[in-house]
Amino acid sequence: MQLANFNGIISNLLEDITPIEITKGVSQYILWKNNVGKSTAIYKFEKNSKLPFLDEHNLFDEHIFVISGVFNDGNKKYKEGSFIINPKGTSHIPQSEEGCTILVTNE
């Protein structure tokens, strides 16, 4: 019988993470980040909030899963349950009129 290997497993509890206010109404909860810029984070957007800058993906693809609410990338709205891939070289302006929570992975 093969035994499971749990070496190197990392886990976090969202309620234990101190949020970083990116801008008014947008908070980031970093779940994991390495030394080359790959990361996984939860972003919470309050109603009518928007990043005040162009979010450019120069190094990695970005994967977004909409946990709740409606996310808008400046071009299209994505409802709860949507999965979006922004390939390396693309950009968008994350925002939400209704408010939303998203999971974002850069890799």
UniProtKB/TrEMBL annotation:
Residues 20-105 form the ChrR-like cupin domain. This is Cupin domain-containing protein. It comes from Aliarcobacter butzleri.
